[in-house]
Amino acid sequence: MKSIIAILLTLPLAAVATLNGRCVKGSDPLYNNFGICVKTSTCKHYGGTSKSGLCPYDDDDVKCCVVEEACAECGENGCSICQWTNQPCDMYWLSNRCPGGSNFKCCGPAL
What we know:
The protein is an alpha+beta fold. 23% of the residues lie in helices and 22% in strands.
């Protein structure tokens, strides 16, 4: 019985950082706000940079990824960045330019 309780207590922790999910909070605001947990090969494919330790419950090849300026060119209103769609975007949402699901898109100038 005690082992079942111990397993159940770890379940909420395992859900903190998941593949295509938000990174856990660290000391870097860029990764805290704009990071997504993806495989390092996926991050590289999208032109992103990876940071270790922010997706602790995933496989070793899953890291926190930030994609800046690679999802679209810089424009009059600023440069692009992949971000969560529940955050404000002062430019335009551009699909199919970022890793993850439909809730993680490129915020960038219109093409």
